[in-house]
Design a protein that fits this description.
The structure is a homodimer of 149-residue chains.
Chain A (H helix, E strand, L loop, with lengths): L2 H8 L5 E2 L6 E2 L4 H11 L3 E5 L5 E6 H8 L8 H5 L2 H4 L14 H10 L2 E5 L5 E6 H19 L2
Parallel strand pairs in A: 2-3
Antiparallel strand pairs in A: 1-6, 3-4, 5-6
Helix pairs in contact in A: 1-7
Bound molecules: ligand 2BA (2 copies).
Chain lengths: 149, 149
């Protein structure tokens, strides 16, 4: 069996389901998102709209960037702006049904995680580098043990 | 050849040298670190002391956590505190000479990156998940092409 087949067997368990993912909504005030990101400590999280579709990604740096004014560091933007005003709107996401394993791995070269959506764009969960590396670690131990040369 | 050997050939190029790494010093005021982290956009960076040894890791969340007071979000801590007052001091780091490839991969399961140091603890650069995944991606293409079954 090829490496690809060994990983394919394990890949069903890669998805971290939506229920375990920290997120914010696009219409939340920045104040709320600042608190969420400070407390959950994940560096970048998905942004969902009212229909649970993934519409952006958000990190603390996108928020603190608005706090840097000419004079000083200001907290005023936290009350004035919403998540949708600062979030990253250009990002990779995948539909498990349509995306091959090779395509997933290729995207994980430049993305620490990939939001997974269904055919209607509704958020299903995250595919993370950690899950992939765990599987690779397992596979190379298994493979090298049986096929050592 | 085993997967391990194929990766070992490429692993010389994994280290991102210290000259290309964004960092802060442990005695910098938080104000400075806040600006650095907001501008470079890396989510977590190494903290070095005067002797260029890695003494901690720093993210924006460690700084914003100090800004959450009972009343409101305050910028006062940015002037009052230093990087060493909030940085993460418990973290994994590796010495390339001493660490096997398996040990590196195992550590990358729970670490997005690993600071690399020499025998005196002086910062050499970072080993990142991105570099590992690029190598794995290359190796599986090569391996499966030659040893398909
Ligand atoms: N609370 C925690 N418990 C245990 N380990 C933790 C952790 N927070 C971070 N890590 C470790 O640090 C890595 C980088 O986390 P980061 O938050 O920068 O980057 C994360 C974050 O942006 C996002 N992410 C992961 N899990 C998430 C969740 N439950 N909710 C929201 N975003 C998540 O996916 C990125 C990659 O995650 P990955 O698991 O591959 O890699 C994680 C994981 O290995
Ligand atoms: N300016 C940029 N240009 C291109 N791609 C970018 C980028 N900033 C982030 N990325 C992509 O996002 C991933 C996660 O970045 P993050 O800053 O959360 O997490 C980073 C950051 O905490 C640290 N890191 C990487 N390069 C660094 C550098 N030059 N200076 C300081 N820290 C660095 O190592 C972690 C893992 O990095 P890795 O390369 O595996 O994975 C990176 C990379 O694939």
């Amino acid at each position: 069996p090829s490496i690809k087949h060994l990983i394919q067997e394990k890949s069903g368990s890669f998805l971290i389901p939506a229920s375990r993912i920290a997120f914010v909504q696009d219409d939340n005030p920045l104040y709320h998102a600042f608190l969420i990101l400070t407390k959950v400590k994940y560096s970048k999280i998905p942004v969902l709209d009212k229909d649970k579709k993934v519409v952006g990604l958000l990190s603390l740096a996108m928020i603190t960037d608005k706090m840097l004014t000419n004079e000083e560091i200001s907290t005023a933007p936290l009350d004035q702006l919403k998540v949708k005003d600062v979030m990253q709107t250009k990002f990779d996401k995948i539909n498990f049904v349509e995306t091959t394993l090779e395509a997933q791995l290729h995207l994980l070269i430049n993305n620490a995680f990939l939001p997974v959506v269904d055919d209607r764009g509704v958020f299903q969960g995250l595919l993370t580098r950690r899950e992939w590396i765990k599987a690779f670690n397992y596979v190379t131990h298994t493979y090298d043990k049986h096929y050592k040369s």
